[in-house]
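Hey, I was hoping to borrow your eyes for a little while. I'm sending you its amino acid sequence along with the backbone structure tokens. Take your time with it, there's no hurry, and the full record follows here.
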Amino acid sequence: MKDVNLALTDIGAANELVFDRMVKEKERKLITSVSRSEAFQLERKGLFPSRRKISNRSVGWLLSELLEWVSSRDAVVSLDNHKQEAAL
């Protein structure tokens, strides 16, 4: 099976993968760009995919749920970039 580096893959292409798997914290952060504490707070409010218990000391997220969450988010525009574009 070919390894897929999701940090370098666009979300649309990653959504077309035919398998689902568990994603641990380090990869979750790469995919969502959300800190651990912010993800926990959003999860408690029902605004972020729920963690799933892998073992007694390990949790993970379904890749498909994280990709769906990312695609549902609005794009964030940097104010600095917006000001530079307006000046042109």
